[in-house]
Design a protein that fits this description.
With 170 residues, the protein is an alpha+beta fold. It has one domain: 3-Layer(aba) Sandwich (Aminopeptidase). 34% of the residues lie in helices and 29% in strands. The chain is built from six helices and eight strands, in the order E-H-H-H-E-E-E-H-E-H-E-E-H-E. Strand 2 and strand 3 form a beta hairpin. It is globular.
């Protein structure tokens, strides 16, 4: 399930973003709980992005994901962090939820995003999902995925998300 993040999630999110293993592929986040809380409070006033806590149906938080940078019918997604010890299926389920939410609820037709080159596990995941590498820099790979590839992957992995997604507002 996706749940809209709010200021009460600051400690959980800060813990993920400052985890030594996870943070090596993220933009720098200072270990400052007040600053994280303030960012979440500011986010709550914006309409151009969605920031979610990924949860089990029993409300156990597994990670985060954010949708932002709309460009026509394309959205960007990132801040995708799954905590250590989460079920193996948490990554595939959360990716499917992102695409279902963006396409079925928001009307997007494609996505764009970037992944650090060193984050091989994640960029390989996206490529297996049908994303096409369109550009690279010294540090990052840039990807696009269209509605056809998204639909194929949603069908291929449907056992992981057989029912409509649940988005819980706070």
């Amino acid at each position: 399930m996706l749940r809209n993040a709010d200021a009460t999630d600051a400690a959980f999110i800060l813990g993920l973003r400052t985890d030594l293993q996870k943070a090596q592929y993220l933009s720098y986040t200072p270990f400052d709980l007040d600053r994280q809380r303030a960012w979440l409070e500011s986010y709550a006033t914006k309409k151009d992005q969605a920031y979610f806590v990924i949860e089990s149906l029993n409300a156990e938080p597994f990670g985060t994901v954010r949708l932002y940078d709309a460009q026509g019918d394309s959205f960007c997604w990132g801040s995708w962090i799954i905590k250590a010890g989460s079920p193996n299926h948490a990554a595939i389920e959360s990716a499917l939820m992102v695409y279902a939410y963006a396409i079925d609820r928001l009307g997007f037709q494609q996505a764009h995003f970037d992944v650090r080159k060193e984050n091989e596990h994640v960029w390989r995941f996206h490529e297996r999902f049908g994303s096409m590498r369109i550009l690279e820099t010294d540090r990052d790979y840039f990807y696009q995925i269209d509605s056809v590839a998204i639909a194929k992957s949603r069908m291929k992995y449907r056992k992981f998300l057989p029912n409509p997604i649940q988005v819980k507002e706070q």
